[in-house]
Design goal:
binds adenosine-5'-triphosphate; binds magnesium ion
Length: 230
Amino acid sequence: MGQTVTDAMVRVEDVHKSYGSGAAAVHALRGVSFEVPRGELVALKGRSGSGKTTLLNIVGGLDTPDRGRVDVEGRDLAGLDEEGLLALRRDRVGFVFQSFGLIPILSAAENVGVPLRLRGADPREREERVELLLSLVGLADHAAQRPGELSGGQQQRVAIARALANNPSLLIADEPTGQLDAETGHAVMELLRAVVRSENVTALVATHDTTLLGLADRVLELSDGQIVEH
Ligand SMILES: Nc1ncnc2c1ncn2[C@@H]1O[C@H](COP(=O)(O)OP(=O)(O)OP(=O)(O)O)[C@@H](O)[C@H]1O
Ligand SMILES: [Mg+2]
């Protein structure tokens, strides 16, 4: 019972998801299956509306599929209750969004420290970890600045540092360079590529960015709620 048949970080099997019902139903995902091997950076591409965000939310435990199965680190998400999903999102998965999602009144350092506070880490451990993470993303000298005082690329670096705060095994990023110019986006993508190597995380990143598609270990394409085979 509960035996892991695969060593994949993420295993998605025949996942379906619809919004609405009857004639108005939108079939966002129509039988999606794939695996993300441990330690890999997997890019997810596809036209607007193809189901990328829906899929990322389901893999990260923010939403549930209508049908099919999702395993993260060998654990079937259907077997987790609300509390279990909360713990998964807090401790095992780091999220990075297109719009950064930083708290405006907190400094960069305080933003990075939020997940550590939520976990109840002791203040000294928190301080050390925040300092290390800000150095990792190249923002050691910007710790005291609030998001409004940082450039878009810097804000996304803070968001990446925050996503890594609790040492997640899986990083999920939804168009992390969508609001950045090409050059800044390129630097953010290289940072993601670097942290996947140095922090021992696995990443699933939805993107249209050709830079990241080139840096990824593999590229998955969604079309109309289905994975396109290449
Ligand atoms: N909460 C919702 N209610 C109704 N329909 C939704 C909802 N969320 C997504 N959809 C629909 O599901 C489909 C897939 O949406 P999704 O956001 O996953 O696409 P996407 O690939 O992330 O697109 P984009 O590149 O524009 O971000 C779309 O047709 C969308 O309109
Ligand atoms: Mg989307």
